[in-house]
Specification:
This protein has helices at 14-26, 42-46, 54-77, 91-101, 119-124, 126-134; strands spanning 5-10, 30-37, 83-88, 106-110, 138-142. It contains 6 helices and 5 strands, in the order βαβααβαβααβ. It is α/β, with parallel strands linked by helices and 143 residues long.
Length: 143
């Protein structure tokens, strides 16, 4: 059965851009792009690794807005309309919660290679691996 609502998480990577292009090409349904702003870790602030200031938070929100705006432009270029969302939290957990709360029935996302962890994490990336393992819907990983 064809999906009725596809979620495309965006993180600014080329593979996330490819995931959006794939979703726009393959699915003639409602598409939402989601950018998850990761909160600054309190331990990193307390340990002096990062400054916990409003400028840093605003820069992260501005980056998220740019990613969403770019996705809107790409959809318009493909003669499509999309919905957008920006949320704050752990990326994998936020994506999974978004799926459950908003009647999403398919996720299309980029995967990232890495050096740590299991084979799946090396092939897909930690966020994609978590979403594939925990999402209650079909997940397509673009590589």
């Amino acid at each position: 059965m064809a999906p009725s609502h596809v979620l495309v998480p965006l993180d600014g990577s080329p593979l996330a851009d490819e995931a959006l292009a794939e979703a726009l090409e393959l699915f003639d349904c409602r598409i939402t792009v989601l950018n998850v702003v990761t909160p600054i870790d309190a331990g990193m602030i307390e340990g002096g690794v990062l400054d916990g200031d409003e400028d840093r938070r605003q820069a992260a929100r501005d980056r998220a807005d740019r990613l969403v705006d770019r996705a809107l432009e790409r959809a318009a270029d493909a003669d499509r309309e999309i919905e957008t969302a920006v949320q704050t939290g752990d990326p994998a957990e936020t994506i999974i919660e978004y799926v459950a709360d908003r009647d999403v029935d398919h996720v299309v996302m980029g995967g990232h290679s890495g050096e740590r962890g299991t084979i799946a994490r090396r092939l897909l990336g930690t966020v994609a691996t978590s979403v594939v393992g925990k999402a209650p819907v079909t997940v397509t990983v673009v590589r």
